[in-house]
Amino acid sequence: MKITTDHLSDLNEKQEVSYTSELQFLRNKFSNRKLSLDEIIKKLADFQVAIPSWALGAGGTRFGRFSYGGEPASLEQKLDDIGILHALTKSAGAVSLHIPWDSPGDVKAVKEIAQSHGIVFDAMNSNTFQNQPDAKKTYKFGSLSNTDKAVREYAIQHNHEVIKIGKELGSKSLTVWLADGANFPGQNNFQTALQNTEDSLNQIYGKLPQDWKMFIEYKPYEPNFYSTVIQDWGTSFMLANACGERAYTLVDLGHHLPNTNIEQIVATLMLKGKLGGFHFNDSKYGDDDVTVGSIKPYALFLIFNELVYGMENNPQNPGLSWMIDASHNTKDPLEDLIQSLEAILIAYAQALLVDQKALKEAQAENDVVRCQEILQDAYRTDVRPLLKAAREKSGAAIDPLQAYRHLGIRKNLIKERGTKTKATGL
Ligand code: LRH
Ligand code: MN
């Protein structure tokens, strides 16, 4: 199912009246600030988030998985679904592939389909946390950290193959996340596991094309429940520095122990020029992978406030990779991703409204109350008219979720694919 601007023009016409008056209200509200709302609208229109190839079907847990009907059964169909998301939002212009879950059979055909939807290939993800059916080695006791040199080499080889596939597709980065760790005290020698991991990552980095980046993703626990080799930002930061200047830390919002100050981690990594990118999602307890901004929207805003400050003040930190990493256990995957894109753009727009100059002055004067008021004034501003203006500017649906339902897209996908298809991934 291909969405065209014709599909959207009538819908947008109805939407336009209401949001233009809301936009005019914002223009009046910020007329006394040296702030260009048109510049913000342009930044929102240019902001592209990569969609994870592993999150286009119904997700699940060990307690069950409830299929959604019309799920994409191939990489080609997944690209078509991301094409629908991008046509509706004009913010989903990239895909992040997970190998081997989404290995491209026919690279040429896959590139053509992606191009036809205006989608580029963002970071490639290797998978050394599952044994493949034809596996010659087992990752049961780890991969890059494994005590068995042959298993480490097997995992390093897999990452080199993922880079090779990425080069053919035009990707420019590799994300390495390791499940490696232990379930019980005494099971692992922490130092040996970390040293093996560092050596293995260096061998992967050694084969990274000169114009590529490597992202090292950390996580405190799951699937190991006593220790994880790359457990926190500090360990990832250390390993990235040990590898080289094109190795960075990737922040998955769900990979933090409760109440961790993630915005401070973001500020620290940007100051050190080692923040590579994000896996956006939200969570109340663990790595819940629920809809972005659905549980802690203020925390997401505070993270974007540090990102906006960093993008203005830290030229030492390169452009960031923006990716979603979520799992859809009870929502239509495409509606869930539309909501996540909305939440990310809302947090970014609110952060762009922060009067950074006034904040800096209030911080210098230790005017604690004023600091909070400056932040919350931006956070409490309804910025959705700016997102609607950005989408109209980009030829997207002013209200993507309403358009998705109005056009009966899920019904059409079920008609095309049936109810039995199952998407690869989590
Ligand atoms: C690990 C993770 C990682 C992916 C996987 C699908 O929890 O966040 O980014 O490889 O999910
Ligand atoms: Mn992740």
Topology at a glance:
Elements: H1 5-29, H2 37-46, E1 50-52, E2 60-61, E3 64-65, H3 75-89, E4 94-96, H4 107-116, E5 120-121, E6 124-125, H5 149-169, E7 173-177, E8 181-182, H6 190-206, E9 213-217, E10 227-228, H7 233-243, E11 247-252, H8 262-271, E12 275-280, H9 297-313, E13 321-324, H10 333-352, H11 356-364, H12 368-379, H13 384-394, H14 400-406, H15 409-417
Parallel strand pairs: 1-4, 4-5, 6-7, 7-9, 9-11, 11-12, 12-13
Antiparallel strand pairs: 2-3, 8-10
Helix pairs in contact: 1-13, 2-13, 3-4, 3-10, 5-6, 8-9, 9-10, 11-12
The chain binds 6-deoxy-beta-L-fructofuranose and manganese (II) ion.
Short description:
This protein has 15 helices and 13 strands. The protein has helices at 5-29, 37-46, 75-89, 107-116, 149-169, 190-206, 233-243, 262-271, 297-313, 333-352, 356-364, 368-379, 384-394, 400-406, 409-417, and strands at 50-52, 60-61, 64-65, 94-96, 120-121, 124-125, 173-177, 181-182, 213-217, 227-228, 247-252, 275-280, 321-324. The protein binds 6-deoxy-beta-L-fructofuranose (LRH) and manganese (II) ion.
What does this structure look like?
Its EC number is 5.3.1.14. It is an enzyme of class 5 (isomerase). Residues 103-289 form the Xylose isomerase-like TIM barrel domain. Helices cover 48% and strands 10% of the residues. It has helices spanning 5-29, 37-46, 75-89, 107-116, 149-169, 190-206, 233-243, 262-271, 297-313, 333-352, 356-364, 368-379, 384-394, 400-406, 409-417; strands spanning 50-52, 60-61, 64-65, 94-96, 120-121, 124-125, 173-177, 181-182, 213-217, 227-228, 247-252, 275-280, 321-324. It is an alpha/beta fold and 426 residues long. It has a 6-stranded parallel beta sheet with strand order 6-7-9-11-12-13. Helix 8 links the parallel strand 11 (247-252) and strand 12. It has one domain: Divalent-metal-dependent TIM barrel enzymes (TIM Barrel), CATH 3.20.20.150. The model has no long low-confidence stretch (mean pLDDT 96). It starts with a helix and ends in a 9-residue tail after the last helix. 6-deoxy-beta-L-fructofuranose is lined by residues 54, 125, 177, 217, 219, 252, 279, 287, 325, 426.
